[in-house]
Design brief:
This is Tyrosine-type recombinase/integrase. The chain is an alpha+beta fold and about 425 residues long. The protein folds into three domains: about 55 residues; about 80 residues, Orthogonal Bundle (DNA polymerase, domain 1); about 160 residues, hpI Integrase, Chain A. The protein contains 15 helices and nine strands. Strands 1, 2, 3 and 4 form a four-stranded antiparallel β-sheet that branches. Strands 5-6-9 form a three-stranded antiparallel β-sheet, with no helix packed on it. Helix 4 runs antiparallel to helix 5 and helix 12 crosses helix 13. The protein starts with 9 loop residues before the first strand and ends with a helix.
């Protein structure tokens, strides 16, 4: 009878042979993960002991160490695997520069202190769960990002035969209650613009009058729904004020994340992000003013030295206004984008709002951007018909009248 073919990472039945003095010899066939076959023998005082020893030896053979090109083994520390994974990502271009830079920061600042020295064979689901809980205790929002990053690193290890399975996939994230969408309405935005003007013209200010950068970027975001990086990255070649209606093409952005040099990128968050937006005529005077004052600079928003303004310039200016006026900390440029998306969703529906915002899926727009209307549709006419039918039925019968008369008659008969 032919022997059963073994799959990689499996073993056959253990055969035993009786030896003198009551001892036994156990033999087992197995197949390594790379497809090669092997055979192990051991001697013990009992079949149970021989079985335990053989299974442990086979497990070690399964984990026996294929060396990947970078020289990693299952005894390598996790931090070495994480760094090699990031080199692999840079080579393949799987992640944008900003994402890769942030992941490198999380590896060094968050993951390395908590699990960097553990070997790959020591990384279990309980390890990932412990790390997730510790990060969640300090920064809940970063905990999910770190767990996803660990999962990506472990998947790379599985791909290179350094792990048998991805332990991060067994760890569930904490369910978070949906956060209410903060999107200032038209009245709040009008008041906000007034506060910006008051801040610029305040009597106690020191130095020259602040620039119009913040107010102009606010107007552009509210008119186009652009991200702040897309707003400050707008070039004049993508502004057409002569068409009817005027148009702006969102085709690039400024990247100036912490620890990175400021630069322009001609690709956006996704393919759906590239879009042509018609703008209200109220925005045209601001753009014409900036074009006249720009001196031929290719960027709509730029510094006195000619370099493009960055997102940090806008955040810094807005932070000063918030502190001066005591405004809500949630009033950030992204909240203004949500106001614009909400207005479009109310007028044109969620699909139109998704195209306007540059989202690939309308679910993202509905879940995170478009503020849900609190006022329900006017149903007074529809439901009024139900009230009219009730009035046409005539007087309501007194259901207790007959019952009360019967009770009085029964008491009289008893007397």
């Amino acid at each position: 009878m032919a022997r059963r073919k073994l799959e990689p990472g499996s073993h056959g039945e253990i055969s035993f042979q009786e030896l003198p003095a009551g001892r036994v010899q156990g033999t087992i066939r197995f197949r390594r993960l790379d497809g090669t076959h092997g055979r192990l023998r051991t001697r013990a005082s009992s079949k149970a002991q021989a079985r335990r020893t053989l299974l442990e030896l086979v497990r070690e053979e399964y984990e026996a160490v294929p060396v990947v090109p970078g020289g990693l083994t299952r005894d390598s520390p996790f931090i070495d695997l994480a760094r090699e994974y990031m080199e692999h990502v840079a080579f393949t271009g799987e992640q944008r520069d900003t994402t890769r830079h942030e992941n490198l920061r999380l590896i060094e600042k968050k993951l390395s202190p908590l699990m960097g020295a553990l070997t790959l064979r020591e990384i279990k689901a309980t390890t990932v769960l412990r790390v997730y809980k510790e990060i969640h205790a300090d920064t809940p929002r970063q905990a999910d990002t770190c767990k996803a990053l660990i999962s990506q690193i472990c998947s790379y290890a599985v791909m290179n035969d350094l792990m048998l399975a991805n332990p991060a996939r067994e760890v569930k994230s904490v369910k978070r209650r949906p956060k209410p969408i903060y999107a200032p309405d038209a009245m709040q935005l009008s008041e906000f613009r007034s506060i910006i003007r008051d801040f610029q013209e305040r009597e106690d200010r020191l130095g020259p009058r602040p620039s119009d950068l913040l107010g102009d970027v606010v107007d552009l975001i509210l008119a186009t729904g652009a991200r702040v990086s897309e707003a400050v990255g707008l070039k004049w070649q993508f502004v057409d004020l002569d068409t009817t209606p005027p148009q702006v093409t969102i085709a690039g952005k400024i990247v100036d994340s912490k620890g990175q040099a400021k630069r322009y990128e001609d690709y956006l968050k996704s393919e759906a992000g590239w879009r042509v937006v018609t703008i209200p005529v109220e925005l045209v005077p601001m753009l014409r003013r900036r074009r006249l004052a720009g001196g031929g600079n290719e960027f709509v928003f730029h510094t006195r030295t000619g370099a493009p303004n960055g997102t940090q310039d806008v955040h810094r200016a807005l932070r000063r206004v918030r502190e001066w006026a005591g405004l809500d900390q949630e009033l950030v440029p992204h909240a203004l984008r949500k106001s614009a998306v909400t207005a479009v969703a109310d007028a044109l529906g969620i699909e139109g709002a998704a195209q306007f915002a540059g989202h690939k899926r309308s679910r993202v727009t509905e879940q995170y951007y478009a503020k849900r209307a609190v006022l329900a549709p006017d149903t007074s006419t529809v439901l009024g018909a139900l009230q009219q039918s009730r009035q046409q039925d005539g007087a309501v019968l007194d259901m207790t009248a007959g019952r009360d008369g019967d009770e009085r008659g029964a008491r009289a008969a008893e007397r």
